[in-house]
Design goal:
By secondary structure, the protein is α/β, with parallel strands linked by helices. It folds into 3 domains: 3-81, Arc Repressor Mutant, subunit A; 92-167 and 274-298, Periplasmic binding protein-like II (D-Maltodextrin-Binding Protein, domain 2, 3-Layer(aba) Sandwich); 168-272, Periplasmic binding protein-like II (D-Maltodextrin-Binding Protein, domain 2, 3-Layer(aba) Sandwich). The protein is 38% helix and 21% strand. It is built from 11 helices and 11 strands. Strand 1 and strand 2 form a beta hairpin. The protein starts with a helix and ends in a 7-residue tail after the last helix.
């Protein structure tokens, strides 16, 4: 059995999509499917119900998932404990959500570096669910992501240590009209179809946006004109008047001050989110320079503004 088969299975169990899981693992879908089949052949029982849409775990698959996570974690931690990390760069492996790169990550690293000298980071950016898989598979030491109970992520809160670094809010914005008002009001149903710059439904922000629209008291007609998992892309499109985008408030503060983007009023169109940092207990103990203990000690004083 190959450890990659276990990692493939964990990605698939989180994403419930062969296509997206194959993209995340950077292999063709056919190769990915063969590897899942090989794992099932090795175990001797189907783990995935391919007759459902989306594909779901079988009963055996649910039972095997926890064992797979534990096996991958133990193998990765053992490899690190034996000193098999890269000798060229032994930085702390940090996975960060795309949407936190510009407006949270630099400030957080600056705070941390002022407190602890000599820190080095090996940073990878991606979607929230890719980061969860990386943390579960031992491919990162720390995971920095957005969190909301309205779109819970599958990090085991009981076994994974976490701290809240700050608060944010997903808000709708668009380019202003000549009067400085929103070009696309959400409450005026007579305005016709509202062009929406959306996230893929399986992403963290996509799930939040679907919930916001589904439970809103007003029901204007929305039309998705563009979709991307990257808030930076949706922000650029919104700045050019392409439609309404739901963006983290931190990301558009300067745009709103410069009146290049305007907020669309109404709390029913917004969703509060937290900025969280995760590490499993095993990863936290292995971090150099007692990093995790330092983070916990000063979290209340250094929450990101």
């Amino acid at each position: 059995m190959d450890i990659e088969w276990l990692e493939d299975f964990l990605v698939l169990s989180d994403l419930s999509s062969f296509t997206r899981a194959a993209q995340t693992r950077n292999v063709t879908q056919s190769a990915f499917s063969r590897r899942i089949r090989s794992l099932e052949d090795w175990i001797g029982i189907p783990l995935i119900d391919r007759d459902t849409v989306p594909p779901r775990l079988t009963v055996a698959g649910h039972l095997f998932r926890d064992a797979a996570r534990e096996m991958v974690r133990q193998l990765q931690d053992t490899r690190i404990a034996l000193g098999h990390r890269s000798r060229a760069f032994s930085g702390i492996k940090l996975f960060v959500s795309h949407s936190l790169i510009d407006h949270v990550l630099p400030e957080w690293i600056a705070h941390l570096s002022r407190r602890i000298s000599g820190l080095k980071f090996d940073i990878t950016a991606g979607e929230t669910y890719e980061g969860m898989v990386a943390l579960a598979g031992g491919r990162c030491d720390l995971l920095m992501v957005y969190y909301s109970p309205n779109a819970p992520i599958t990090v085991d809160e009981k076994s994974c240590a976490s701290v809240i670094l700050g608060q944010d809010r997903l808000v709708p914005v668009c380019a202003p009209n000549e009067d400085g008002e929103p070009q696309y009001p959400l409450t005026d149903i007579r305005a016709g179809s509202v062009p929406v710059l959306s996230y893929p439904p399986e992403t963290f922000f996509g799930r939040l946006l679907n919930r916001i629209i589904r439970f809103s008291p007003a029901h204007p007609h929305f039309g998705v004109v563009a979709q991307s998992p990257h808030s930076r892309i949706l922000r650029t499109l919104a700045l050019n008047g392409a439609g309404v985008a739901w963006l983290p408030e931190r990301c558009i503060r300067e745009d709103c001050r410069a009146k290049q983007l305007v907020r669309i009023d109404g709390d029913q169109w917004c969703s509060d989110v937290e900025i969280r940092l995760y590490a499993s207990p095993e990863r936290a103990r292995l971090l150099e320079l007692n990093l995790w203990e330092n983070i916990k000690e000063w979290q209340d004083k250094a929450l990101i503004d």
